[in-house]
Write a structure and sequence with these properties.
The complex is a heterodimer. Chain A contains 11 helices and 2 strands, in the order αααααααβαααβα. By secondary structure, chain A is mainly alpha-helical. Chain A folds into 2 domains: 80 residues, Orthogonal Bundle (c-terminal domain of poly(a) binding protein); 142 residues, no CATH class. In chain A, α2 packs antiparallel against α3, α6 packs antiparallel against α11 and α8 packs antiparallel against α10. The longest helix of chain A has 26 residues. Chain A is globular and about 70 Å long. Chain B is of the alpha+beta class. The longest helix of chain B is centred in the last third of the chain and has 25 residues. Chain B is elongated. The chains are: A mainly alpha, B alpha+beta. Chains A and B meet through α3, α4 and α5 of A and α3 of B. Chain A: This is Integral membrane protein.
Chain lengths: 231, 102
C-alpha cells in the first residue's frame, strides 16, 4: 500500500514538470537542502508541495521567484526548517541504520557481480568444468566498504553545506583549491596503497547463495524500516 | 519581537475568514506592511500551525496544485486575545514614554 508520503512525492514530481527551467533549478536546490535537513520525509514532501504551489501560482501571475522568496534562499529554507519538528535521536538512528542497510545491500550485489569467483563460476558453468560456489571476502573488500560509506556521507555533508550559498562564497583562491585537491589526491593514493598492501588477505569465504540470501535479507529489512519511518 | 507581532497580525487576518498564503500577504500589504511576500510569511504560517494556533486544509485550485487554506483554532483565538491586551498595554506605555498624542 502506498503511504501518504509516497503519494505526495509522486504528486510533487508531476508538479515539478510544470516549473520553468529557471524556477526548476532554484526549487531543486531548495529541495536538496531540505532533504539533508533534520526533518521527516513527510514534512519534506509537505513543504515541497507548499513551495511548488507558491512558485507555480507566482509563475501564473508572471512573478519572479525572487519576488516571492527573496534571493536569500538559504535563510528562507533555514527558517522553514526551524519551524518544523526536528527528528529525535531514535529517528536519526533509524535513518542511519536504513541508509547502511540499503548501501550494504547495493555494495553486496556489486561485489558478487564483479568478484573474480563469480566470473570463474560463469566461465566454468559455460565450459562444463567443476563449479565452486564460494566467494571470498578480503581485508581490502572490507576497507573499500568502509571508505565508500564514509566518502558517501562526506560528499552528502559537503554538498549540503554548500547548497544555496551565494555565488561569491564558491570562489575560493587558487592556492586553497590546489591544497584541497592535493590533500584529496594524496589521501586517495594512501588509501589505495593500504588496500593493495594489506587488502589481498582473505578474511573468510562464503557460499554465493548464502551471500545472495543475506543481501536480500538486508534489502527486505531496509524496505520494512522504510515503512516504519515513512508514514 | 517583530516576528511575534507579524505572527499575531497573520493570526488576525486568518481569524476573519479561512484564507491562503497569497491572500494573507495581500491583506497585510493592504494594511501597510510593505515587502511582505508569500515567502516571507510561509515559515511563520508553519510555526503557527506547529503550535496549533491555526490549522490547514488542502483544497483543489484552478491552477492545479492543491491550495492550503488556513483557519484559526480556539488556541489561536486565545493567543490573539492575549496579544491584543499586551499590545494595548505596550502601546500605552510607549505613547506615554514618547509623549505621543499630547
Amino acid at each position: 500500500m502506498k503511504t501518504e508520503t509516497k503519494i505526495l512525492n509522486q504528486e510533487n514530481n508531476e508538479l515539478d514538470k510544470r516549473l520553468t527551467e529557471k524556477n526548476n533549478v532554484i526549487m531543486t536546490d531548495m529541495v536538496c537542502y531540505l532533504r539533508l535537513a533534520n526533518i521527516s520525509e513527510h514534512d519534506q514532501e509537505v513543504v515541497r508541495q507548499d513551495l511548488l504551489q507558491m512558485v507555480l501560482s507566482a509563475q501564473e501571475r508572471g512573478e519572479d521567484i525572487k519576488t516571492l522568496i527573496s534571493e536569500d534562499y538559504k535563510s528562507f529554507c533555514d527558517e522553514v526548517i526551524a519551524a518544523l519538528p526536528q527528528k529525535n535521536h531514535k529517528e536519526r538512528v533509524l535513518d542511519l541504520i536504513d541508509t547502511l542497510l540499503l548501501s550494504t545491500s547495493i555494495l553486496g550485489v556489486i561485489h558478487i557481480v564483479i568478484s573474480k569467483e563469480t566470473m570463474e563460476l560463469i566461465y566454468n558453468a559455460v565450459t562444463g568444468q567443476q563449479l565452486n560456489f564460494h566467494i571470498s571476502i578480503s581485508v581490502g573488500d572490507l576497507l573499500s566498504y568502509v571508505i565508500i560509506i564514509a566518502t558517501g556521507f562526506l560528499i552528502v555533508h559537503v554538498i549540503g553545506k554548500n547548497l544555496l550559498k551565494p555565488e561569491k562564497k564558491h570562489n575560493q583562491s587558487k592556492i586553497k583549491k590546489f591544497i584541497i585537491c592535493g590533500a584529496i589526491s594524496g589521501g586517495l593514493m594512501a588509501v589505495f596503497l593500504i588496500i593493495a598492501w594489506v587488502g589481498r588477505q582473505t578474511l573468510f569465504t562464503v557460499n554465493i547463495f548464502a551471500a545472495c540470501v543475506f543481501i536480500l535479507g538486508l534489502y527486505i529489512a531496509h524496505k520494512l524500516l522504510q515503512e516504519l519511518i515513512i508514514t | 519581537m517583530l516576528k511575534g507581532i507579524l505572527e499575531n497580525c497573520i493570526l488576525k487576518v486568518i481569524s476573519g475568514d479561512e484564507t491562503y498564503g497569497y491572500e494573507i500577504s495581500q491583506q497585510l500589504q493592504k494594511y501597510g506592511f510593505s515587502d511582505i511576500s508569500e515567502g516571507t510569511i510561509y515559515p511563520l504560517l508553519l510555526r503557527l500551525e506547529k503550535n496549533n494556533l491555526i490549522k490547514a486544509k488542502y483544497r483543489e485550485s484552478a491552477l492545479g496544485p492543491k491550495r492550503k487554506y488556513f483557519s484559526i483554532t480556539p488556541a489561536g483565538e486565545k493567543e490573539l486575545e492575549a496579544f491584543i491586551n499586551n499590545w494595548q498595554e505596550l502601546n500605552h506605555a510607549v505613547n506615554q514614554l514618547f509623549h505621543i498624542g499630547e
